[in-house]
């Protein structure tokens, strides 16, 4: 049975309306008294109690800049990627279309320029409407701005559960606090400042906060260029972004847009003809999807990810990880990097041409740095950051250390065995002791037994031996070269040019191993997985057994190009926050690492690698005789699954790599077909070589290809010292404890294919 209405109090009757009016007036009177009238001027317990409550409410609101998008830029200012927690780009009021300002005021707060933060007329209207069973809002734009500022601060602090939404979890006390703050805000800021703040903070869509982001997302335009129908649609969207979404609910969006237009013409903000044309315009969007994060970078996703790791690991951006994330993803930073987009495009084309979406997922990467500054110029690899069908999908950066790459919990790579690209550092130690590179040594020695008397002034003992006869005691097999015809006497420089393993060991036997260690450390070479030094007293490291990253190797070789001065690699040139203030970036940091005359001697020898040694087989050929001065070293590890060319001109150093980038990197690089070509065993000159050659030919001239300084004559043609005595072929004493058995990757015996 229906409940009957008392006709005396029915709001449809004249008497009912009078009672309703009196009741609403009383409520409004209490609110207005509490908000606007000093306590001493009011009597009555109800009003007095309300005023005391208002007096305890805060009247100050900290209006911090709302969360803004961070931009990572290339060296020329082009955008690499945008990062954000809320997609927002702040713009000033004069950078907004007049239509959007008028539309928002017309539909949300028509008396915006008349009230002082709280619209009592609106409150009266809303209460009457609510009493009649119809819901109607009463919040002014100022009140909405207050609510958005409070919620934005809570979101930034990670307190999303405390966010207050109108009609959902906002109580009377919350509403009264909002009113008081709105009044206080109106005393502190102008109407234009409040309107600008509101339009920059308000939520339009999950991918669009603020009018600039909304304009780009829905219409692929700017806030300044919004048309009248577009502005009216966005103004109507604020009330319910999902219900009035023009993409999913175009009919609702048109109805709401036309209501906004009706309000605008009624309030005299547009003419009738403008209104007629606007309502006749169909609802059409031109969506520019918001692509947040490095994964969506079309230029350099892996370099972007490297930059992001640098920021998130830097205490200057926050005391802990959460604070640093807030700074980076909400701070509206502008991060200018060292990346050259032109060089990057060439690098990307090369790695994709070498080994794009190969079904067996062999990896290719290329990274280059600028000698003298350490600036990273390019960083590319042949994988897709975002999963794509038929592509080699991988989030791990092949070019950097494990700590600097995403996916460490998935088994981040942390580099590859550098193979023979480590040989120039033993050669540098030979020159550092004042010895001539034309000294002839015995390259036929293949056995270095456990009791071999290496010279070593470092506290770390020598680890390892090469002597098949002592395998049961922990030694590796006798040293091997790629070609049988190179077990012979030859000069030290010929041994390096042709990448002969036995000559590298003969060279090391003639110097202090500790001298090699000091050069390797000074040139910044370290283990890519642990960031620990590479121990050169571990004999397998003379020919590249410990994984190092391509960026590490490029930076180390840049030391030779820079006359012996090593510069730490840097990626971030400058960082500014939303206010334009400078934040800590990376500055060039260099140190003397190798004697200039030694660096010049190495540069001379590495030119010979390309002219007549293992690098002369690279196709297309690149050498100092046919193009510009350039030096490089090929590298291949024992199972042929990590192949390199690392080299430099006077202005650019580059590491080019090809090999196994999966899991434990244990697939041998043999009997594989790539781009229709069969390889019995891949070598540094075969795939990594053309990557290097093509890239350097196109990019290096922009960075300088001056002749290298001449190597001192005493290091090239000086008197040859007496060759080191040939070691015995068998141990004469039993060691007290056998050396550890090297792992399969620690049994190098394969040199790069020498020039026949």
UniProtKB/TrEMBL annotation:
<feature type="domain" description="Glycosyl transferase family 51">
    <location>
        <begin position="77"/>
        <end position="264"/>
    </location>
</feature>
<dbReference type="InterPro" id="IPR001264">
    <property type="entry name" value="Glyco_trans_51"/>
</dbReference>
<keyword id="KW-0812">Transmembrane</keyword>
<feature type="compositionally biased region" description="Low complexity">
    <location>
        <begin position="727"/>
        <end position="736"/>
    </location>
</feature>
<keyword id="KW-0808">Transferase</keyword>
<keyword id="KW-0472">Membrane</keyword>
<dbReference type="InterPro" id="IPR001460">
    <property type="entry name" value="PCN-bd_Tpept"/>
</dbReference>
<feature type="domain" description="Penicillin-binding protein transpeptidase">
    <location>
        <begin position="366"/>
        <end position="649"/>
    </location>
</feature>
<protein>
    <submittedName>
        <fullName>Membrane peptidoglycan carboxypeptidase</fullName>
    </submittedName>
</protein>
<dbReference type="GO" id="GO:0004180">
    <property type="term" value="F:carboxypeptidase activity"/>
</dbReference>
<keyword id="KW-0121">Carboxypeptidase</keyword>
<dbReference type="Pfam" id="PF00905">
    <property type="entry name" value="Transpeptidase"/>
</dbReference>
<keyword id="KW-0511">Multifunctional enzyme</keyword>
<keyword id="KW-0645">Protease</keyword>
<feature type="region of interest" description="Disordered">
    <location>
        <begin position="709"/>
        <end position="756"/>
    </location>
</feature>
<feature type="transmembrane region" description="Helical">
    <location>
        <begin position="18"/>
        <end position="42"/>
    </location>
</feature>
<dbReference type="InterPro" id="IPR050396">
    <property type="entry name" value="Glycosyltr_51/Transpeptidase"/>
</dbReference>
<dbReference type="InterPro" id="IPR036950">
    <property type="entry name" value="PBP_transglycosylase"/>
</dbReference>
<dbReference type="InterPro" id="IPR012338">
    <property type="entry name" value="Beta-lactam/transpept-like"/>
</dbReference>
<keyword id="KW-1133">Transmembrane helix</keyword>
<feature type="compositionally biased region" description="Polar residues">
    <location>
        <begin position="746"/>
        <end position="756"/>
    </location>
</feature>
<keyword id="KW-0328">Glycosyltransferase</keyword>
<dbReference type="Pfam" id="PF00912">
    <property type="entry name" value="Transgly"/>
</dbReference>
<dbReference type="InterPro" id="IPR023346">
    <property type="entry name" value="Lysozyme-like_dom_sf"/>
</dbReference>
<keyword id="KW-0378">Hydrolase</keyword>
